[in-house]
């Protein structure tokens, strides 16, 4: 247990439905990252927050995806109008500072879109 | 795209040293080498990182060649619990960068009894 938690751990939804995932980072960490991982591939960066500010978004993050981190604590990732191609593991990681500190990853949320 | 090249898979006997190579021939002067691993159904886990000197911690040793174009992660006494995908990542160390990790496909290490 790294101290980063994600909820739910598994989500099965039908195409076209909206889903929301939550990440609770380690409390003193000011940076929070979202990654997506498909089968057989390494995780791919989606977006990151420094405190409550969303500072970077990957081009993988289509306009159906939105992420928030109110008050610089937990974060949510919402996917609207899900597609089968959204099926993946969604990973959250947190760290502190601006230097090369290790990122602590949560266990991930596995999304299956039917 | 990932800036590193790793073998797709490797086997290692339990109790023996596991040596995982990584090529990063385009690494620049301010970029560090990081290693993470991902055990099945878990999130990635940090192992070690280094700039140019060899590094050792309680999990592993990192050997970086003098020209910094390649490195080797060494697990001195592999156990079955070390079976995982190992990712070698090159990234900037300080400021300016948002710090996200760029993962390749990694090396799947299988430790066998």
Tell me about this structure:
The complex is a heterodimer of chains A (114) and B (113). Chain A is 0% helix and 49% strand. Chain A is mainly beta. In chain A, the strands form two sheets. In chain A, strands 2, 4, 5, 6, 9, 10 and 11 form a seven-stranded mixed sheet that branches. In chain A, a hairpin with a 2-residue loop joins strand 5 (44-50) and strand 6 (53-57). The model of chain A has no long low-confidence stretch (mean pLDDT 94). Helix content of chain B is 0%, strand content 46%. Chain B has a five-stranded mixed sheet, with no helix packed on it. Chain B is built from no helices and nine strands. Chain B has strands spanning 9-13, 18-23, 31-38, 45-50, 55-56, 61-64, 70-75, 84-92, 107-112. The interface between A and B is medium-sized, with 27 and 26 residues.
Architecture blueprint of SSEs:
The complex is a heterodimer of chains A (114) and B (113).
Chain A: E1 5-7, E2 10-13, E3 19-24, E4 31-37, E5 44-50, E6 53-57, E7 65-68, E8 75-79, E9 88-95, E10 104-105, E11 109-113
Parallel strand pairs in A: 2-11
Antiparallel strand pairs in A: 1-3, 3-8, 4-5, 4-9, 5-6, 7-8, 9-10, 9-11
Chain B: E1 9-13, E2 18-23, E3 31-38, E4 45-50, E5 55-56, E6 61-64, E7 70-75, E8 84-92, E9 107-112
Radius of gyration of chain A: 13 Å
Percent of residues of chain A in beta strands?
over 45%
Rough outline of chain B: globular
* Distance, first to last CA of chain B: 35 Å
Chain pair forming the biggest interface: A-B, 27 and 26 residues
Largest sheet of chain A: 7 strands, mixed
Overview features:
heterodimer; A: 114 residues; mainly beta; four-stranded antiparallel beta sheet; 0% helix; B: 113 residues; five-stranded mixed beta sheet; 9 strands; 46% strand; globular
